[in-house]
């Protein structure tokens, strides 16, 4: 059974949101919709759940139309059997944990309901909290209850809208880890919306990259993260350096690129092109104080530090090496090298750390 | 000064002996304003739900009108309801003018916008995700609305209090459409006006005290419910 979506939603103020993808419905798998805030990820989820109505196109669950602009069909949310967890959990304040989880089970017999609620309390690690009210729960516990509540009626599809965004990092990691096991055990197909790279990489089985209302690339997360196919995708995926280059030569699977006057060596993706974007992750750029000579890195660029951003254990170093280059190093390394703005520096980049995105025509 | 003192003493006597006329006026007031509040509750909450949950052109205008209506002067309502109910008015064939029902109608017109405006506010202050969340948990639209009303029940109680307080204490509309007919449309406020103008201060004071007590009791009861069930 497959969910096939191909629709657009227009807003009078803002971009057109367009979605075209399909996914399996009767087996476990987490499809991640990844993109910056405000790019339309939530709109797509809402259209799938029936909380919003697309303007054109169709959504089919196998051969049942949930929405079809041509025939005007629209299945209301309560007949789609889709679970939905919001970023800020909207628990019912007047119901306790048990009551919240049981909310979607109104039509079940009281025996089945009690059984199912206990099962979810156990699965989501909420045992002993049955009688608590939402105000007595921590942020992480609230999200657990929200997930248990969404999963209780055995939905066909679970939609998660940035469910970890309001949690602190350890709580988010813990819940992420547990959730994956629970969902796998339930054979639950899931669509997860996030703008967090760690989340996309650690949870996703399939990644859909979204930009300005459109899905611009899809594939397995490791594949997409390793090989973005557009400049926009590369920027979205956290390549700190994206620079336009000309092809100066190709030999034996290697490319010689010119970023202005600066030469870069990179693997050749093949194909006909004269210009390309060179994309480099900050993690792939090593720094050296004094040029010591023989190293394996093919790219050795002289430059100057222009800015230092401290990010907890890491430091993002911005440099001018003839083009703006970014490096991500540990704060210890930064201290050892006693880096300061304005210092001369050598940047070392392995050829394989440079991803080439051809510019057509 | 003596006049006032005598008036207060007589008022206490009337209250303590449960004077028959005072009692019947009180019960009538309670019945008419209670019924009017009930009607307003149905109309007002429905209006609040429609305004809170739907988008339509002119919604802001309607909300402005409702909010203006929360401060409708009772005499103006009295005038327009009278005109509707006059023998040769549009609803004249119902022969309702100067009947208790006319008072209920006028008071309902006064209380409906108050309850509508306050229930709209009550529903709008619920988290916006709550409505969507209820829908995704398999609730039909009707079940969703019922759930929202339950979530907003405490501010809705305040709306009922405001509506009831508004109509039990108004005099302008009741006297215009009811006519202050003894045994039929004489309510606490209209009787107070009449007794005062006749110089029967004892009776007027007694009626005023009852009016205050009544308003206090009803509000105290509702406040008790509201405060008892307020989550922390």
Question: What would your notes on this structure say?
Answer:
The complex is a heterodimer of chains A (361) and B (232). In chain A, the strands form four sheets. Chain A has a six-stranded mixed beta sheet, sandwiched between helices. By secondary structure, chain A is α+β, with helices and mostly antiparallel strands. Chain A is globular. Helix content of chain A is 24%, strand content 37%. Chain B has one domain: MetI-like (MetI-like fold, Orthogonal Bundle), CATH 1.10.3720.10. Chain B has helices spanning 2-16, 20-53, 59-69, 74-85, 100-124, 128-136, 141-151, 153-168, 172-178, 188-198, 201-228. In chain B, 40% of the residues are buried. The A-B interface holds A 46, 49-51, 76-78, 81-84, 86, 88, 90, 92-94, 103-104, 106-107, 133, 135, 149-150, 153 and B 127, 129-130, 132-141, 143, 147, 150-151, 231-232.
* Category by helix and strand content of chain B: mainly alpha
Helix percentage range of chain A: 10-25%
- Going by CATH, the homologous superfamily of chain B would be MetI-like
Please report which band the strand proportion of chain A falls in: under 5%, 5-15%, 15-25%, 25-35%, 35-45% or over 45%.
Answer: 35-45%
> Which two chains have the most extensive interface, and how many residues on each?
A-B, 26 and 19 residues
Return the CATH architecture of the largest domain in chain A: 3-Layer(aba) Sandwich
Give a quick summary of the entry.
Chain A has 361 residues and is an alpha+beta fold.
SSE inventory with pairings:
The complex is a heterodimer of chains A (361) and B (232).
Chain A: E1 2-9, E2 17-24, E3 29-34, H1 41-49, E4 56-61, E5 64-68, E6 73-74, E7 82-85, H2 97-102, H3 110-123, H4 139-151, E8 157-161, H5 169-185, E9 189-194, H6 197-203, E10 206-211, E11 214-219, H7 221-226, H8 231-236, E12 241-251, E13 254-259, E14 262-267, E15 275-280, E16 285-288, E17 299-311, E18 314-320, E19 324-330, H9 331-337, E20 344-349, E21 354-359
Parallel strand pairs in A: 3-9, 3-10, 7-8, 8-9
Antiparallel strand pairs in A: 1-2, 1-4, 4-5, 5-6, 10-11, 12-13, 12-15, 13-14, 15-21, 16-20, 17-18, 17-20, 18-19
Chain B: H1 2-16, H2 20-53, H3 59-69, H4 74-85, H5 100-124, H6 128-136, H7 141-151, H8 153-168, H9 172-178, H10 188-198, H11 201-228
